[in-house]
Amino acid sequence: MSVTSLRSRAAVLAVLAATALLAACSRASEAPATDAPAANASPAAELRLGYFPNITHAPAIIGVAQNTFAQELGTGTKLTTQTFNAGPDEVNALLGGSLDAGFIGSSPAINAFAKSNGAIRLISGSTSAGAQLVTSPDITSPEQLKGKTIATPQLGNTQDVSLKKWLKQNNLEIGTGPDKVTVQNIDNSKTLDLFKQGQVAGGWLPEPWSSRLVDAGAKVLVDEKSLWANGKFPTTVLIVRTDFLAQHPQTVEALLRATQKSVDFATTNTDQAKKITNDSIKQLTGSSLSQPVLDRAFTELSFDTDPLASTFPQLSKDSVTAGATQTETKLTGFLDVAALNKVRQADGKTPVDAAGLDKS
């Protein structure tokens, strides 16, 4: 082969290599965020964390109150917290970029993943059970809900989906009129007041609000635990923005260590956990819970970092049944429990099963 031919061939190969490199860079810029840690990953300067002032968020409340999150994050990462009353508001904060991670209900977690095209990952469980349909004591069957108003915390939140699914399963139409059930989305504190005034017949509510209505004279018509295998379903989980997870895996792992410690504390130091949670709720909302309400609420819940991944396909279907979403969310890649399992194994606990939802 002549020198001229060799040079021509080399020039062609160089052009092809450059073209391939440009194409690869273009594809990378278009690709969604992945679970792979960034090459320059480092602890975050700040972690903005959301949670609710509810008993169902006791591990989060305890972790903040006892500085467990701050201690695990270390002095290099500032912890900033914000509280919410319902999941959709917290989802908006996460998708709007004003939060990095949040304890949230299972249904809003699914919706966040769907709305963001995978910009959210579920990384841990927190709380199971702790939701009930409580009504005035004269209501003893589903049929007696016709013509009544039942409250849920917010449109599309976990309890709103559960109620609407249950109503459809019992052939009860949602709407207004004597043959329908009116579902109203009301702040939990207002639901309690309206129930006392006789303006709502009850609500499908998380703890401690279901217990507060029981304390005010309501009776349990449906305990959601009865609708799930072994009485377990994810009430509160922990989600994080996918790009934050990729950029700051050390910070996320610290968050998970703190979550595990707070869950363990809530499980093994129940009396102290109750007091810490109640004191924090008073500080956040201006009112504390009576001891009977506090005791009852804690007995209705269980705490574990296992997110109960196998339940999420059904929860996704439930959102469609309830009319919260039009189509079932494909949950491939929804979970990333690699860091959680690292934390659990270091603590002597069994790794959690991602039920295939960690596969993209």
TrEMBL record:
It comes from the Bacteria. Its main location: membrane. It is found in: Cell inner membrane; Periplasm. InterPro entries: ABC_SsuA_sub-bd (IPR010067), NrtA/CpmA_ABC-bd_dom (IPR044527). The keyword Cell inner membrane applies. Transmembrane segments: none annotated. Residues 1-23 form the signal peptide. Keywords: Cell inner membrane, Cell membrane, Membrane, Signal, Transport. Pfam families: NMT1_2. PANTHER family: ALIPHATIC SULFONATES-BINDING PROTEIN-RELATED (PTHR30024), TAURINE-BINDING PERIPLASMIC PROTEIN (PTHR30024:SF47). Belongs to the bacterial solute-binding protein SsuA/TauA family. NCBIfam families: SsuA_fam. This is ABC transporter substrate-binding protein. It comes from Pseudonocardia ailaonensis.
